[in-house]
Amino acid sequence: MRASRSFDVLVVGAGPAGLAAACRAAEGGRSVAVVDDNPNLGGQIWRRERGHRARGETRVWLRRVRRARVERLAGTQVVGAAGPGALLAETAGTAVELRYHRLILATGARELFLPFPGWCLPGVVGAGGLQALVKSGLSVRGKRVLVAGSGPLLLAVAAYLVKHGADVPLIAEQAPRRRVLRFGLGLWREPGKLLQGLALRFRLRGARYLADCWPTAAEGDGALSAVSLTDGGRTWKERCDYLACGFGLVPNLELPAVLSCDVGQGRVRVDEWQQTSVPGTYAVGEAAGVGGLDVALVEGQIAGHVVAGSRDSARVLFPARRDARGFASRLEQAFQLREELRGLARPDTIVCRCEDVRFDKLAPFGGWTEAKLLTRCGMGPCQGRICGAATEVLFGWRRESVRPPVFPMALGGLAPSRA
Fold first, then answer.
1. Contact criterion met (CB below 8 Å) for 242 and 123
2. Side-chain half-sphere CA neighbours of 143 within 13 A
3. Each residue of 269-295: pLDDT tens digit?
4. What is the pTM of this model?
5. How confident is the model at residue 261 (pLDDT cuts 50, 70, 90)?
6. Which uninterrupted H or E stretch holds 404?
7. Which pLDDT tens digit goes with each residue over 104-155?
8. For residue 328, what are the contacts with CB-CB under 8 A and spacing of at least 6?
9. pLDDT of residue 26
10. 8 A C-beta contact, residue 170 and residue 244
11. Are 255 and 269 in contact (CB under 8 A)?
């Protein structure tokens, strides 16, 4: 018989949005559990270094979680629905049903990867992914690391790598110089973020920051040794041991889609209370649209107040949410992807790494479903999470459906529970 647990409020995702939601709901008197597949709370943005204690804002929210007596279900992966008001999850190879009265989806986001020649070489990794590896114990001391892609995350990652002994000679930002400059000049309205940016740039004073610059190819005999870069006019090579490359974030929408939440334009659609199209189900943070830390914290708190029955407390936070979303919108406009990135892949460039499907095998098709059926693109272990987002940029394809389980799980866990 499958194990079962019940809560007033179940929060999926233990990043900033999920922790904020769980705290507010528990402080409002509800029994709350937060479930996450990672062994520690904090999500990707608050991931702690191995052997280090939480600090700053992370420590504050983790302390509030403990004080509010939120139950933590770490190392537990939600794979789909188990019926009305219940999710199916797996922990340590054992299936469990998590029942709830209210559900808050704080499923976060993942990095967007765009295929280019050599992107499958060992040493080519996501920008945030390399940071996570270093936090888990990978040494980059003395390694030459190029950081490329788009967005302010590149600066944060580069500064972190430098702090841990890496040589970061160059940060390549694909956005046009004029847009980056305009965005930077507009930070006078956000003094806190302006100071953060200046502090990061000071820590990276030994690295060149080039806007209008992006990678076109990675080279190496069995592992990365050099990267070709272009500024749209000239092309040159840079020697390196790692390329930390990320072109923004893609919300994790598989679970909301399986739960029949209305999904469109790359996000879960929500009302002013963060409620989705499914009554009693809420979405916060990146799942409701990529917005960063400030958006995640304020939206999480709004949803937490609402499920605790305190809409007046939630309404007080509406102006803060409006401001945070406004900043996120300006950020998105400044760092939107340039058209040239759609042409990086060559005919023999692998697009689906799980199934080794090349660009030229996908180009003749008119949509995701047709390509998937005839090439197996998106049918590997990542279930289209990498190539699905890439083909949306390359071909404008949309994934029409998501089928459970949203993550691989033991076959025995899929069997229905028996009394």
1. yes
2. 21
3. 999 999 999 999 999 999 999 999 999
4. 0.93
5. very high
6. none
7. 999 999 999 999 999 999 999 999 999 999 988 999 999 999 999 999 999 9
8. 289, 290, 291, 292, 295
9. 95
10. no
11. no
For 106-207, strand residue ranges (E) read 109-111, 124-125, 145-149, 170-173
- Cα–Cα distance measured from residue 306 to residue 301, given in angstroms and rounded to the nearest whole number: 9
Alpha-carbon span 328 to 331, nearest angstrom: 5
Token look-up 């080279």 returns: 219
Pair 313, 280: CB distance under 8 Å: no
CA distance 71 to 58: 18
Q: What is the largest CA-CA distance in the chain?
A: 69
Omega before residue 84 within 30° of 0, cis: no
Span between the terminal Cα atoms of the chain, in Å: 7
How many angstroms separate the Cα of 164 from the Cα of each of 100, 151, 240, 285? 43, 21, 16, 29
Instruction: Give the DSSP H or E segment for 381.
Output: none
- Please count the other Cβ atoms lying within 10 Å of the Cβ belonging to residue 191: 9
Q: What is the four-CA torsion angle of 262, 263, 264, 266, rounded to 10 degrees?
A: 160
Asked whether the CA dihedral 139, 141, 144, 146 is positive or negative, the reply is: positive
Run of H or E including 39? none
